[in-house]
Amino acid sequence: MALLSFRSPTARAHPVTRASGSLEALLQGYSIEVMPRTADKVADFRALLPAGTRIYIAHIDGTPIEDMVHTARRLARDGFEVMPHFPARSIPDAQTLSDWIARYQDEANVTEGLILAGGIPETRGRFHCSMQLLETGLFDKAGFKRLHVAGHPEGNRDIDPKGGDRAVMDALRWKQAFSERTDAKMALATQFAFDAGPVIAWAERLRAEGIDLPIHLGIAGPAKLQTLIKFAIACGVGPSLGVLQRRARDVTKLVKPMEPTEILRALAAHKAAHPDSLIERIHFFPLGGIRTNAEWAIANGGPSAQPANTHPESTA
Predict the structure, then answer these.
(1) Inter-residue contact 286 to 58 (CB < 8 Å)
(2) How confident is the model at residue 17, as a pLDDT?
(3) What are the angstrom distances between the C-alpha of 162 and each of 144, 219, 237?
(4) What pLDDT shows up at residue 22?
(5) Where would I find the H helices in the chain?
(6) Pick from 301, 287, 286, 300: which is nearest to 45 by CA?
(7) In this structure, how many other beta carbons lie within 10 angstroms of the beta carbon of residue 192?
(8) Tell me: the pLDDT tens digits for 190-245?
(9) CATH class of 23-302
(10) What distance, in Å, lies between the first and last C-alpha atoms of the chain?
């Protein structure tokens, strides 16, 4: 999901403390994102991820809904919380949305969703933004217990094509108001970032604007620098891209995996000093592979996977 694009001119520099923070605490309850085609390559998610981990299923335009539902069913049967994407621009009408919701619930008992515009420039039908999907009332009617929506720490050129973040902030105020009239728990999910400073400043600005939705911050898992640069450009990552570009000046680092240790330690220190921060959870994009990401999380204090001898039988 391409959520970030550039740094808002209103964002201020923010000093980031390097004091020791609780990285272990920050990694508790992390979520991770998969696609049906990447999920198919994993023999057993239970051997990699803690029981109950929230797994987002990315709906790339053109992916058959049957593939999405199959992945959701498999993950749900293995004891994970499943949160599929609902990309507005790829959904032609309310009947299709209702059908998708029904399929997820009938086959995987899904009650969570990431509601977003989607990464394609043209709409497939009547919807062009997440707010239109929410306004249908179909998620409420289906009894969804959790709804996540997009947050944009560095602005978004799709929403504010001339720069700035006026439309982005207006959308956030709408989402805040919606959260106050729904029983579903809501949070902001963001694209991956590589620099803690702008993210912390953004979270503080939201609080000052009266927006208190928890932030589930996107972080790229360990991957080769070249891979991270490719995905960052494709997803429109803004000032965070400078972190990668500076690292790329050292050619010896181009083929070495880059780990998210530095940004997460900075965020952990901030969270330890400001426990009321809106930054609540970490959401991993496993750009270097799901196993690599899971093993890194465990090695850095994250919860362990379920022991193999306690795995329930799976029918997936």
Answers:
(1) no
(2) 40
(3) 36, 27, 17
(4) 86
(5) 23-27, 36-39, 65-77, 94-108, 130-135, 138-141, 166-180, 196-208, 225-235, 241-248, 261-273, 290-299
(6) 286
(7) 24
(8) 988 888 998 999 999 999 999 999 999 999 989 877 765 665 555 555 555 556 55
(9) alpha beta
(10) 26
Amino acid at 123: T
In this predicted structure, what is the pLDDT of residue 166?
76
Average pLDDT taken over every residue of the chain: 84
**Strand pairing category for 223-224 and 257-258:** antiparallel
Closest among 173, 197, 174 to 262, alpha carbons compared: 197
* Percentage of residues in the chain having pLDDT higher than 90: 66
How many Å apart are CA 152 and CA 202, to the nearest integer?
A: 9
Please count the helices (runs of H) and the strands (runs of E) in the chain: 12, 10
99 touches 136 (CB < 8 A): no
pLDDT 10s digits, 242-271: 565 566 555 556 567 789 999 999 999 999
- Quote the CA–CA distance of 243 and 71 in Å, as a whole number: 34
Nearest to 216 by CA among 140, 262, 158, 284: 284
Residues in the chain: 316
CA–CA dist 189, 282 (Å, integer): 9
DSSP 125: S
In whole angstroms, give the CA distance from residue 2 to residue 191.
6
H-run or E-run covering 190: strand 185-193
Q: Is 237 exposed, middle or buried (0-12, 13-18, 19+ CB in 10 A)?
A: buried
Tokens of 140: 């409420």
Cα gap 112→208, rounded to integer Å: 28
